[in-house]
Amino acid sequence: MTERIRARGPRSSSVNSVPLILDIEDFKGDFSFDALFGNLVNDLLPSFLDEEADSGDGHGNIAGVDGLTNGHLRGQSAPLSSAPFFPEVDGLLSLFKDACKELVDLRKQVDGRLNTLKKEVSTQDSKHRKTLTEIEKGVDGLFESFARLDGRISSVGQTAAKIGDHLQSADAQRETASQTIDLIKYLMEFNGSPGDLMELSALFSDDSRVAEAASIAQKLRSFAEEDIGRQGASTAAGNATPGRGLEVAVANLQDYCNELGNRLLSRFDAASQRRDLSTMSECAKILSQFNRGTSAMQHYVATRPMFIDVEVMNSDIRLVLGDHGSQPSPSNVARGLSALFKEITDTVRKEAATITAVFPTPNEVMAILVQRVLEQRVTGILDKILAKPSLMSPPPVQEGGLLLVCRYLFISLLSFFIVELV
C-alpha cells in the first residue's frame, strides 16, 4: 500500500493542489490507518518530522525554547516572530478535504458494488432455490419410479419363481414318465420266455452299473408281484377272466436277482480277502436291497475263520481242558473259560470295527455274529466239558453230581458276561 500511494507523485503544499486519487486496492489486505495517514502527509511535513525527531532527542526542549499554547514559539529574550511557525496547515487541510471527498466517493462505489452484488446474489439465490425445488421434485419422481420398478421386479421375481416351480414339477413329471417307460420296457423283456435272460438290456449285465440294475430289478419284481396279487383277488371275486399275467416276469426276475446276488457275494468275498473295505461296503449296500441284506450278513458271519477253521475249535478245547487224557479241576476249567471268553471278545471287537465300516445296518450283523458265537463256540466247548445229565442216571456224588453241572454252567455264563462288561 505504501508503494502504491508513493507512485502517484509528491503532493504540493499549495491549497489548490491536484486532488488525491485513492484506490480501493489501498484498503485490501493488511490495512493500516497509520501507514495510510503517514503516506498522505509525509511530503508536506518533512522538516516537521526532522524537528520532531530532534526534539525527541532533546527531551522536548530545543536551545531553551518554550512551547506556547497557540502553536507558536518564542525565545526567552527574542522578540515575537512575524511568520507562522506551521505554514503547512493549509496544505494539510486541503489534503484532508480531498481525502475525505475521495473516501466518500470510494464508499459510494463500494456501496454501489455491494448493492449490485446483493442483487446478483439474490437473483442467483432465487435461481438456485428454483433449481433445488425442481431437483427435489425430480428426486421424488425418481424415488417413485424406483418404487414402481422395485414392485415390478418383485412381481417379475415371483412370477419367475412360480414358472421355475412349474418347470421343476414338469421336469420331475417328465423324468418320472421317462423312468416309467424304461421300467415298462425292462418288464416286457423279463416277461418274455421263461428262464430266458439272454435277451435283456446291457444294463443288467454291466458290472459298472450293478447298483442301478439291482434297484430296477427290485422295483420290477415288487410291481409284478403286486400285479399278480391284484389279479388273483379279482379272479377269486369273479370280476375278471383269468389270463396271462406277469408270472413269467416274476420268475425271471427272481432268477436274475439270485444270479446278481451270487455275483455280488463273489465280489464281496474277493474284496474281503484283500481287506478292501470300500468294495465290501459297496457290495453290502447293493445286497441290502435283496431281502434286506440278510443273505450278505449271514454269508459274512458264516465265512469268519473262527467258525470254519477246525483248528480254532481244537485250540478252544486245549485252552479249557488242557492236554488229552488229563482230568482238569473246576478251578482250571474256570480259568480256561475266562481266557477263552476274553479271546472270543477280542475277536468279536475286531470284527465289530469291520462290520461298522462295511454294513449299512451293523447292529443286525453284530446280533447274528454274537448268536453264532454262542451257538457254535460257547456251546461247543460246554458240550465238551459237561456230560448231558439225566435224572435217571445223575453223575456220581463223589464227582459232584448235578451240583458240578450247575457250577460249570454258572462259571461259564458268569465269565462270559464279565468279559462282555469289561
From TrEMBL:
Annotated Exocyst complex component Sec10-like alpha-helical bundle domain residues: 212-393
GO biological process, alphabetically ordered: exocytosis
Any single Gene Ontology cellular-component annotation: cytoplasm
The keyword Metal-binding is assigned to this record: no
Chain ranges of the Exocyst complex component Sec10 N-terminal domain: 90-206
Keywords, sorted A to Z: Coiled coil, Exocytosis, Transport
Alphabetical list of Pfam families matching this protein: Sec10_HB (PF07393), Sec10_N (PF20667)
The keyword Coiled coil appears for this protein: yes
PANTHER family assigned to the protein according to its UniProt record, in alphabetical order: EXOCYST COMPLEX COMPONENT 5 (PTHR12100:SF0), SEC10 (PTHR12100)
Family statement: Belongs to the SEC10 family.
Protein name (record): AT5G12370 protein
Provenance organism: Arabidopsis thaliana (Mouse-ear cress)
